[in-house]
Write a structure and sequence with these properties.
Number of helices: 5
Helix content: 10-25%
Distance between the termini: 39 Å
Number of strands: 17
Order of helices and strands: EHEEEEEHHEEEHHEEEEEEEE
Largest sheet: 5 strands, antiparallel
């Protein structure tokens, strides 16, 4: 007599949530409130306190499913200055224009530069104008409106004290080599005035076992958990409208739900502990955010991330 096959119970591979919030770098609000500027942990470059094991179980891969992140101001210590030159009777004069840091719409940037340029030399620059938007083209244009020739230049790396991989106000304005030539009027290329277009969230411990490494056409590349892009922009407003405000030029919170996340290989039964779990955020120039950059340790903004860990 044949023994009937009772079969084998099969279940779908289980998944669980592994959530991260940059505020978790603090054990309490009291600890956060008592932190000084020197001891304050940066929400974009921090190591979690030792709280023992965070994730246990026989899982084999990790993937980011959601990210919520407040975006950085487009005008920051890297992007608040530009060189300005004007010729009067063939004699060039050079000055530095500084715009207020914070979220500035394109029209705000144009207005700030126009005001400062006019104040440099009311006699020869008092009629200077700068505007954003020519028809449906999102670009800056400027004119002395007289015989005075003007030009804009990027800050030199020596004076600027940053690497040549750092985006400046010159770049945010869409200016090129052509704008360094003194002329009575000129314009730049189309720009949405965004200082940072995307960020990479990095955690070396969580990517240590991935068998396929990340690559990029960028100058700097590293293995990352995910990349977060500024959202696209659709507006019924003309670029010349003062209220025209692409993402990143006004306070923006980016939410991303990854339908097809990057899954990172993990060694089964290898637990995740908190003592060496470090999270870092890099900008689109491959630079780690720090106190003198777009984000800094004195910010109160925190970002959150949801990861799925899976048995298969």
């Amino acid at each position: 007599m044949t023994t009937p096959d009772k079969g084998t119970t099969i279940r779908f591979p289980a998944t669980s949530l592994f959530t991260v919030d940059s505020h978790d770098r603090w054990d309490s609000y009291t600890q956060e409130n008592n932190a000084t500027a020197l001891t304050r942990a940066d929400p974009f470059n921090f190591q979690l306190p030792n709280r023992g094991l965070l994730q246990t179980g026989a899982f084999t891969r990790i993937g980011v499913s959601e990210v919520v992140m407040p975006w950085c101001p487009n005008i920051n210590p890297h992007t608040d200055r530009i060189g300005f030159l004007w010729n009067v009777g063939g004699v060039p004069t050079i000055a530095t224009i500084t715009v207020p840091q914070g979220f500035l719409k394109p029209s705000d940037i144009a207005s700030a530069i126009q005001t400062q340029v006019r104040a440099l030399d009311p006699t020869n620059l008092g009629a200077f104008t700068m505007q954003y938007g020519i028809g449906n083209f999102p670009l800056f244009s400027y004119s002395s409106n007289n015989a005075t020739e003007v030009a804009f230049t990027p800050m030199s790396t020596n004076t600027f004290n940053y690497s040549d991989q750092t985006k400046q106000l010159f770049n945010i304005l869409g200016f090129t080599e052509q704008n360094t030539i003194p002329l009575t009027s000129h314009n730049g290329y189309p720009t949405y005035c965004q200082a940072v277009r995307y960020v990479d969230i990095v955690c070396p411990l969580l990517t240590q076992y991935q068998g396929v490494y990340d690559s990029s056409t960028a100058v700097r590349a590293r293995d990352s958990l995910c990349r977060v892009y500024l959202p696209g922009y659709v507006s019924g407003l003309s670029p010349s409208d003062p209220d025209f405000a692409p993402p990143g030029t006004v306070p923006t919170v980016v939410y991303v739900n990854y339908n097809n996340p990057k899954y990172i290989q993990w060694v089964a039964k290898q637990n995740i502990g908190s003592s060496s779990l470090t999270f870092q955020v890099y900008d689109d120039q491959g630079q780690l955010f720090s106190s003198d950059q777009a984000f800094g340790p004195n910010t109160t903004d925190n970002w959150s991330m949801t990861m799925l860990v899976s048995e298969n």
